[in-house]
Description:
It is built from 2 helices and no strands. 66% of the residues lie in helices and 0% in strands. It has a domain at 22-71. It starts with 10 loop residues before the first helix and ends in a 13-residue tail after the last helix. It is an all-alpha fold. The radius of gyration is 19 Å and the shape is rod-shaped.
Amino acid sequence: MQRFKIGCRTMRDGVVVSGVFLLTGLALLGAGKFLVPVLLHLDLVVQGLGGLLPLFVTFILISTYLRTTSTDAEHTGGAGGGLSSPPRA
């Protein structure tokens, strides 16, 4: 049974996607500040979207971590978590 539908399959993919979200958010913040006209408060809408995208980075990384550790625990039969634990007796 697959619990987590959100998140990337590997941490490397999660970091890449998070970096893309972060850079896109910063680009939207800059565009909303300097390029987009004030027409109908469009600049605030673009800045709001640019501010929300970096917030999604934490959710992407946490869900990717949970997804990778849960699949590791299912395959190895252990507790998962990515931490070294003593062998079971």
